[in-house]
Amino acid sequence: MNAAxxxxxxxxxxxxxxxxxxxxxxxxxxxxxxxxVCGPCQLEECDNPHNKFLxxxxxxxxxx
Length: 64
Description:
Layout: H1 6-9, H2 26-29
């Protein structure tokens, strides 16, 4: 029997300090985005191509 549920065991986070540029980043290697639980990366200056950022809404729509 596993120590935790399978869904919890599939949670992956990195602890990269080099912007997740290589496959040494476990998130990038497994095709997952980095999250806020990742180490120093913390999504700032992160080069993981699997990160999906929502486009910021512009205020132009409100002015019409």
